[in-house]
Amino acid sequence: MNDLNSNLIHVYKSADPLMQMSQMDHNFENLNHSNNEIDLNILDLIGQETKEEKSQYKYLLPKTTNGQILIAPNHSQANHFTNQFTPVQSPSEAQSQDKSKKKVDRSKKTKLEQKSKSDVRSDSAQGSVGLCKICGDRASGYHYGVASCEGCKGFFRRSIQKKMQYKCMKEGNCVIVLLNRNRCQHCRFKKCLEMGMSRECVRFSNNSESNASNDTEKGDREPKKENNTQIVDEANKITNSTHKIIDTAVKQLAICDRILSIAQSHQNLCPYTKINREKNVYLSNKKLISVQVDRNKFRSEKEIMDVTKEELWRCFTVLANQDAFKIVEFAKQIPGFDQIFQNDQILMIKSHFFKVWFLRIVNLFCEEESLKKMCLTFESGHSISEDQLCTIFDENLVTLMIDTRKYFNQLNLNDIEIGILCGVIFTTTNEPFVNLNHEESYTLANKIRNDLLEALRFEISNKLKTSDNDKDDGAINNLIDNIDTFLKKISLIGVLHSENLQNYRTSFNSSKVPNLIGEIFELGKVY
């Protein structure tokens, strides 16, 4: 970088004196956070592990046991009734509680206890659903949304079908257990509802009762047999809506996890987010880069223009090299990106680097009042004017960059959405110059991209949500369409930039550029 053919490069600070080329080189080198970072290459960056531990986000997930998500029924008076995540009292315990109110025949009690013990052993052996949530008897399955016995199932069905009106002889708070469940129909029916039995589910039942006069006693003592197919069908109908709710919640948690992960990476590794721009003192004191050439050393205007172009190109690569380290690190932190074959990771970073770099810095590609021209400002506060960009790159590319910047303003995207779009661009595979080595890399990259697009729609939906769903859908779809158009413009920028790079490889292959940016752009000499 010290062999500069005696050319001078100067940095302006309004009307400040010119700086010598060696000073400018020193300033550019100091833009690195660490002097030894310049020796790293893209393979080192992709292969190395992040030293600092990432912040972990913890969510309030549904409680699980044995891989099953537990959902407690909604109780109207939850504080007065049994917690659904604690065991229901056994029949023997219920007998002791009821003993003060009613004496039970000892022989009958003995038979019931023996039956209860036998049922418990049977439950353990057969892996049943447990005890009835209503009376504590052995449950035969999930009926109308609740684990219950045949007796309580039949009682609830008849009560609904016949529109029975019950009345409690006491205060409406009778304890319902196996031994006394027939004494107060009012409190038994009340407990059925409180435990979660659904009136609507009775309509799906295919078993109508024909004898209403003696069904209650007979149903309690001699449960009717149903075939397994009917039980499974009924359970599926009852739990179907619940499963949909659970699936939706789990899916949204996964989407939120992707959004949080990529938003954190973008905020930490992009110096051009709103928060980072506000904290950067250099951006309030911008410095325009200028190149001056000793004309006496050159014979023609073309030679002078070529040298000027080469030096501006070198300035650009030094400034962009600072962003390169952070962009490569960001790519590594895209959820799932590290699962792609390493050589394909490198190819994707090389193919999409310039587009991602432009999207990150686009908010600082704006018109400067003092110059009345568009300027591109870097993290260090150094700016390159529109005219200088036209010297470095083809004019068509610069014009497209300006047009894309104006279109970007209309989208009104926040930093989270910009971060997600950076991930979307990095995982795009259906563009020129993206030729991966493994078919699995295409499959995985497309999946990651689709997941990120889903996260983008979710983020946009939350931002635009109002009370009018139809209006929301229209606004969301319109913004998604506009973003798709924006991505096509970004893609075209990448194509034109690749053509420009080919010219640089031919014309300025001997020009020294920083190590990492040189490898990404596949240039000749690096340092």
Largest sheet: 5 strands, mixed
Strand portion, in percent? 5-15%
Name the helix and strand elements from N-terminus to C-terminus, one letter apiece: EHHEEHHEEHHHHHEHHEEEHHHHHH
Number of helices: 17
Separation of the first and last Cα atoms: 8 Å
Question: Overview of this structure, please?
Answer:
- It is a single chain.
- This protein has 17 helices and 9 strands.
- The protein folds into 2 domains: 326 residues, Orthogonal Bundle (Retinoid X Receptor), CATH 1.10.565; 145 residues, Erythroid Transcription Factor GATA-1, Chain A (2-Layer Sandwich).
- The N terminus is likely disordered.
- The longest helix has 42 residues.
- The protein has 527 residues and is of the alpha+beta class.
- The chain starts with 7 loop residues before the first strand and ends in a 7-residue tail after the last helix.
How would you summarize this macromolecular structure in one to three sentences?
The chain has 527 residues and is of the alpha+beta class.
Key phrases:
DNA-binding; elongated; 527 residues; 17 helices; 9 strands; two-stranded antiparallel sheet; Nuclear receptor; 2 domains; Nuclear_hormone_rcpt_NR1; Znf_hrmn_rcpt; disordered N terminus
Secondary structure blueprint with pairings:
Elements: E1 8-12, H1 21-30, H2 42-47, E2 64-65, E3 68-69, H3 91-98, H4 106-126, E4 141-143, E5 146-148, H5 150-161, H6 185-194, H7 215-221, H8 228-269, H9 274-279, E6 287-292, H10 301-332, H11 342-361, E7 365-368, E8 373-377, E9 382-385, H12 386-392, H13 395-411, H14 415-426, H15 439-464, H16 469-507, H17 515-520
Parallel strand pairs: 6-9
Antiparallel strand pairs: 1-6, 2-3, 4-5, 7-8, 8-9
